[in-house]
Design brief:
Elements: H1 3-32, H2 35-51, H3 54-57, H4 61-80, H5 101-119, H6 123-133, H7 139-146, H8 150-175
């Protein structure tokens, strides 16, 4: 690779790292339940990106990164024989200046309740819901990342949301 090509590739990799590092880290941390391991997996993912042919990766870089990250994290989990339920870290929410303190507390409580309910979903539903709503991937992108068919991704998201809705409304009716 010429110096100009290497410089362009390095700039592209730097841009990709800046854009996706945080999302990959959060994804890996949720899969592995370990910040240190997540950092290692993300670093390995970006090292693979450095070695990858840009032309083969550039048009679907987000899917490629999340797939490589997911596969490496699953390899680690298999190696450790730790296929246990995944836990979500507490979400930090910024208080909106328009909300009163009681409104903000209620919103935080509702968000935490939803996160707890998501945690109780089966792992495959939990994963596709996170990829869709926390990372903004399309069904097709989720399919390529997770290995599920596009129709299965749609079913898993639908079933997960239906379960969440039932639990939310059932829980609210029980509290009333």
């Amino acid at each position: 690779m010429s110096d100009v090509g290497k410089t362009a590739h390095d700039a592209w990799v730097s841009d990709v790292v800046a854009r996706y590092e945080r999302g990959l880290y959060l994804y890996a941390a949720r899969l592995l339940r370990s910040h240190d391991r997540a950092r290692d997996v993300v670093q390995e993912t970006f090292l693979k990106l450095c070695a990858a042919d840009r032309e083969k990766v550039a048009d679907h870089v987000a899917e490629w990164l999340f797939t490589v990250c997911r596969n490496r994290a699953l390899d680690i989990l298999r190696k450790d024989n730790r296929m246990t339920q995944l836990r979500d870290e507490q979400a930090t929410m910024r208080q909106s200046p328009q909300l009163t303190p009681p409104e903000s507390a209620e919103q935080d409580e509702q968000a935490n309740q939803i996160l707890r309910l998501i945690e109780a979903l089966p792992p495959n539903q939990r994963e596709v819901i996170r990829l869709k709503f926390q990372n903004g991937f399309s069904y097709q992108e989720i399919s390529r990342i997770s290995g599920h068919s596009v129709s299965n991704v749609g079913y898993l998201i639908h079933a997960g949301i239906k379960s969440l809705r039932t639990q939310l409304f059932h829980g609210q009716a029980a509290e009333a």
